[in-house]
Design brief:
By secondary structure, the chain is of the alpha/beta class. The chain has 14 helices and 19 strands. Strands 12-11-8-13-16-17-18-19 form an eight-stranded mixed β-sheet, with helices on both faces. It binds cytidine-5'-triphosphate (CTP).
């Protein structure tokens, strides 16, 4: 295979003792037919030298932005990559990536890459557990990067704990899966308009209080991001979220179920698919108090009367504003997950229902998810525990399949 036909992988190496293990990852990547460009940080070169990376990759090795300037490597390497993997990713590299710094070739590459990005952290347990690192990891994951959990075991000195670089074979598998998905799905939503609802509605009681729910919006945002990556025009109807806008999506902020209905129905008119990932309140207070509701000494509080909200998913499924439109619902269940999911799918009349189990510590606000996608025709696609992006991609796989079949 000619070099230009091979998938292009950038292997970022930062300055930790585990840098030597990245040689094994590099070897696996090149032997399995990838064109790998190694971009070490300055301190990585203190652990493993430039000749090793050059010999194993067969490519030039650059660290700074002032070498080969005529080729504009600080922009080109990231733009042309099919995957960037940083192994090991030190606490410092995670921090620089999270904050968008661009003080060497690796951080410049991370800013210009639009392909999947994987970080395999390695550091001492104290550094991994420090709130600064935890927040940086959360930021990177929120933006769609895959940050692999470090392994537990012997660290550099005498001590053991969480912070070891995951096994190079395991990192390789994550990379291989991401590249395979990219090759398989490519831009299979190009030319399509998709609408995604995300977050949770808030139903006001008075100017300071509302009835709400614990949905963070992360799953809906992952759906929007992955749809953009697959070439779709994306309208994201976002109810009370505090996540950064996914690049390339048209974000419509809403507050209540009634506002969400209006925004979704408007965007759905010319949509090929609508995915209702938002947690829409089924009820709203019957009466809105224009002044703050006050407690009165010696008097019991007034009960809050509720009225039904419109069911947007059921309405869309029945109306299908555009012929052949695929409508997908989400269901959060605590008990009898599959049986309740099947019944809900039938009741709502949608094409697919993504059912996940929720509980006090599960799913809400988490970075990962596990679900079963039920099809109206009886199909069942289990999605193992993994990043919300992976579930999002599986949903789009099913949607693309239905759009192409119809
Ligand atoms: N949904 C909607 N409009 C509503 C309520 C829910 O469009 N008023 C959508 C959600 O976006 C989700 C799906 O319906 O895609 C499932 O919502 P859920 O609240 O779990 O289902 P319910 O019908 O409310 O069932 P139950 O409360 O009995 O669990």
């Amino acid at each position: 295979m000619d070099r230009s036909d091979k998938p292009r992988v950038v292997l970022g190496v930062s300055g930790g003792i585990a840098a030597y293990k990245a040689c094994e990852l590099l070897r696996r990547l090149t032997e399995s037919g990838h064109d790998v460009r190694v971009v070490p940080t300055g301190s990585a070169l203190r652990f493993v030298g430039e000749p090793t990376w050059a010999a194993l990759s067969g490519n030039p090795v650059t660290t700074g932005v002032w070498e080969d300037v005529h080729e504009v490597p600080h922009v080109r390497i990231g733009q042309e990559a099919d995957l960037v993997v940083v192994a090991p990713a030190t606490a410092d590299t995670l921090a620089r990536a999270a904050h968008g710094l661009a003080d060497d070739l690796l951080t410049n590459t991370l800013l210009t890459a639009r392909c999947p990005v994987v970080f395999a952290p390695a550091m001492h347990t104290e550094m991994w557990e420090h709130p600064a690192t935890a927040e940086n990891v959360a930021t990177l994951r929120r933006r769609g990067a895959v940050v692999i959990e470090p392994a537990v075991g012997r660290l550099t000195g005498e001590d053991t704990g969480k912070g070891r670089l995951p096994d190079p074979g395991e990192i390789f598998e994550v990379c291989r899966r991401l590249l395979a998905r990219r090759a398989a799905s490519g831009r299979d939503l190009a030319g399509r308009h998709v609408v995604v609802s995300a977050g949770g509605t808030r139903e006001p009681l008075d100017p300071v209080r509302f009835l709400g729910n614990r949905s963070s919006g992360r799953q809906g945002y992952a759906l929007a991001r992955t749809a953009v990556a697959r070439g779709a025009r994306v309208t994201l109807v976002a109810a009370n979220t505090s996540l950064p806008d996914p690049a390339g999506a048209d974000v419509v902020p809403v507050g209540t179920a009634v506002q969400l209905r209006e925004a979704v129905l408007k965007a759905a008119k010319d949509a090929d698919a609508v995915v209702m990932a938002a947690a829409v309140a089924d009820f709203r207070p019957a009466r809105y108090a224009h002044g703050k509701i006050k407690k009165r000494e010696g008097r019991e509080p007034e009960p809050v009367a509720l009225v039904r909200n419109p069911d947007v998913l059921a309405e869309l499924s029945a109306a299908r504003p555009r012929p052949g439109q695929v409508v997908v619902g989400f269901a959060a269940e605590t008990d009898d997950v599959l049986a309740n999911g099947r019944a809900k799918l039938a009741r709502k009349g949608c094409d697919l229902l993504v059912v996940n189990e929720v509980g006090e510590d599960r799913t809400f606000g988490a970075e990962e998810n596990e679900a079963v996608i039920l099809g109206a025709g009886g199909g069942e696609t289990p999605v193992p525990h993994g990043p919300k992006e992976a579930l999002a991609d599986t949903v789009w796989d099913r949607v693309v399949h239905m759009l192409n079949a119809g």
